[in-house]
């Protein structure tokens, strides 16, 4: 099961749920969870792969999608905004160092 870690954009103050770990929703619903999260490109790609592979690609995607989504949030400027234990767990699972995932003091 995926671990939810809250993420915040320092400039806008928007909060989003970052996820790390196995994605049961992607396994069962393919690209729809990505589409609902606003990740249009990945959602459409997962749907096309499911069509061409007969759904087998969904098993692989379930292991990879949450890490991809949360990494993209970090690239967009989001930082971990949960308890230190969850933040540390998410950084470890994503392979992100603490310096690149903390807000700037400006």
Task: Explain how this protein is built.
It is built from five helices and three strands, in the order E-E-H-H-H-H-E-H. By secondary structure, the chain is α+β, with helices and mostly antiparallel strands. It has one domain (3-100). The chain is globular. The mean pLDDT is 90. Keywords: Membrane, Transmembrane, Transmembrane helix. It comes from Azospirillum oryzae.
Short structural description:
By secondary structure, the protein is α+β, with helices and mostly antiparallel strands. The chain has five helices and three strands.
Main beta sheet strand tally, sense and closure:
3 strands, antiparallel
How many individual domains? Answer: 1
What topology, given as strand order, has the largest sheet? 2-1-3
Number of H/I helices: 5
- Sheet-strand content, in percent, reads 5-15%
Distance from N terminus to C terminus (CA atoms, Å) equals 36 Å
Shape: globular
What's the total number of strands? 3
Order of helices and strands: EEHHHHEH
> What is the helix content?
40-55%
- This entry's quaternary arrangement is single chain
- Taking all Cα atoms into account, the compactness measure Rg is 14 Å
Unreliable spans are none
Classification by helices and strands: alpha+beta
Mean pLDDT: 90
List keywords for this structure.
alpha+beta; three-stranded antiparallel β-sheet; 5 helices; 3 strands
């Amino acid at each position: 099961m995926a671990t939810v870690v809250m993420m915040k954009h320092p400039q806008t103050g928007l909060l989003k749920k970052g996820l790390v770990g196995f994605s049961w929703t992607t396994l069962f619903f393919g690209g729809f969870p990505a589409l609902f999260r606003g990740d249009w490109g990945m959602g459409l790609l997962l749907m096309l792969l499911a069509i061409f592979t007969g759904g087998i690609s969904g098993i692989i995607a379930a292991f990879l999608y949450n890490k991809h989504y949360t990494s993209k949030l970090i690239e967009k400027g989001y930082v971990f905004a949960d308890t230190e234990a969850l933040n540390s767990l998410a950084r470890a699972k994503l392979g992100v160092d603490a310096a690149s995932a903390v807000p700037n003091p400006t």
